[in-house]
Design a protein that fits this description.
This is Lysosomal dipeptide transporter MFSD1. The chain has about 240 residues and is mostly helical. About 70% of the residues lie in helices and about 0% in strands. The protein has a single domain, classed as Growth Hormone, Chain: A (Up-down Bundle). Helix 5 (about 110-140) packs parallel to helix 8 (about 210-230) and helix 6 runs antiparallel to helix 8.
Amino acid sequence: MILPFNNIAAAFFVEVWYPTMKKEAVHIRVGQIMGILFGVSALGSPIAGICIDKLGYRIHFLLASFTMASVAHVMLPLIDPVISMALLGISYTVFASAVWPLVAATVPPRKTGAAYGVTTAAQNFGLALTPVIVAHIRSSAGSYLAVERFFFFIGTASIGVGVLLWMRDNRSGGLLNSPARSRGPDAAQPKLPVEGPESSDDSDDMGPQELSEADRLLLTQNIVAGLSQGFVGVQRRGQG
């Protein structure tokens, strides 16, 4: 809902905010406004990343990001777009800084590449699907205001999915919300209790079962990461 918005941001700003501005001037103005999002992200991402590493609470930060994005989409047709785009920039900064470390925190090192691949595939699916939906809504409604309602709905749904992920993580020990410094190198791999002396002899056979919980967490997180960033990702085409 952030990056896909930038796919139609130029047309949205011209239609809603600058319908009477001269063509040359409106292109400059819209370009300046659209650059706010990535400017905020460029400045804020290192700070957000450091804070999230120290504090943890990644899912809480994701929920805050979804909430800020939803509020920004309510604000976009109503108040100065500079403020709304700055809020979207903060939302994007927090989202990117929180969601990608979840992949590494969820799976063991030998599965990190596959995990990132699945997450990126889910993200790209969202990026491919969202513009089609947006184009249909704009064509049917005849206004970008309906598109903004659609983005707000996505934000609300993302908050709901984030709450479910948070509840699931709490039942699984709170791994995804733990600070980076509290996790050792093997923290991504859950340990099963040793019930007897024979368990050591079967350790090689228990490997797949030990990862099943992490794999289920990964699938849940992939939905949030991919589809939300799919809701949060096509962008720069709108400038072209």
